[in-house]
Design brief:
Blueprint lengths: L4 E2 L2 E2 L32 E6 L2 H20 L4 H18 L4 H17 L9 H19 L7 H5 L1 H10 L11 H7 L3 H12 L3 H15 L5 E5 L3 E5 L8 E6 L5 E7 L3 E8 L7 E2 L4 E8 L2
Antiparallel strand pairs: 1-2, 3-6, 4-10, 5-8, 6-10, 7-8, 8-9
Helix pairs in contact: 1-2, 1-9, 3-4, 3-9, 4-9
């Protein structure tokens, strides 16, 4: 982890295990030294192992989608942004999103606070990380009102949302006001979307902080799936939040991941033309990161 130092230099090797953290050693699954280096597995597949992280990943995906298409001045790009905005509000208002974010941020803050006095900890880097977490917690606590309130209360957007559930239901003749708005200059549409998004930005920033720390909480290891199958039993006292599987860019297979709090499995499937993918009979080398913090 980035808080560990070695002879005064930053060391990205894993930090000492916390009490109860499982030691990942399965000799029958270790890749031989002749297998590709970790850097040769650039295509990453992420899989959440609890519902909270699953929700955060979905929201991250949607926020990234809005940002990507916001830079395009086309009408169809703006339509895509609006559709993603509806999805964000629907997820963010399902349950207690504010509370879920606060609990995860405070959990990470407490876990990192416990390693402050451990030998080899880079106090400056750790203090900066704790400050980032503290600032993010403050932003979430200051959210006023219900999530996405401006989106839900806008009359035009409410009409568009109602029609969005109908196949082809947002044509210009169905929604003339929306069609009229879409013809406005890109800069004007962007300003209006920014107003609708304003209340959701602290959620976006908090999710990015949470997922960034989770992703960086461990380093990848080289593994091999015997005949395309890999399984790992987890310690319930040290739950893994998410796993990341890396494969070569030109690989002809992909991982199908399933898991819960007790174990996870990875099956590597190969694409078959005009048929369902099948599990490969070959031994597959891949990188695996068990993200926990």
């Amino acid at each position: 982890m980035l808080w560990m130092v070695d002879n005064g230099k930053l060391n990205t090797s894993p930090s000492p295990r916390l009490p109860g953290e499982p030691h990942f050693s399965n000799e029958s699954f270790c890749c031989p030294v002749t297998h590709p280096a970790i850097s040769e597995y650039p295509v990453i597949f992420e899989h959440p192992l609890n519902e909270r992280i699953r929700t955060f990943l979905r929201l991250e995906h949607l926020f990234n989608k809005t940002e990507f298409f916001s830079g395009d001045d086309g009408v169809w790009a703006t339509r895509t942004v609006i559709d993603a905005l509806f999805d964000i509000v629907q997820i963010a208002t399902r349950g207690d999103m504010r509370g879920e974010l606060l609990r995860e941020l405070e959990r990470q803050n407490a876990n990192l606070g416990r390693i402050q006095e451990q030998p080899g900890v880079n106090r400056k880097a750790l203090d900066q990380t704790l400050k980032t977490l503290g600032d993010t917690i403050g932003q979430i606590q200051q959210i006023d009102g219900q999530m996405g309130q401006m989106v839900r209360e806008d009359e035009m957007l409410r009409t568009v949302a109602q029609r969005s559930g109908i196949p082809g239901g947002t044509c210009s003749f169905d929604l003339p006001q929306f069609h009229h708005w879409l013809q406005r200059p890109h800069a004007e549409r962007t300003r209006q979307i920014a107003l609708w998004m304003a209340q959701l930005l602290p959620v976006r920033d908090a999710i990015r902080v949470v997922l960034s720390f989770i992703r960086d909480s461990n380093t990848p290891t080289s593994q091999v799936a015997r005949q395309g199958f890999f399984q790992y039993a987890m310690d319930p006292q040290a739950p893994i939040q998410m796993i990341r599987v890396g494969i070569p860019e030109q690989g002809v297979y992909f991982p199908e991941i399933s898991g819960h709090k007790h174990r996870f499995t990875i099956r590597f499937l190969q694409v078959v033309v005009d048929a369902r993918p099948t599990q490969t009979p070959q031994d597959i080398c891949f990188s695996l990161t068990r993200c926990m913090i």
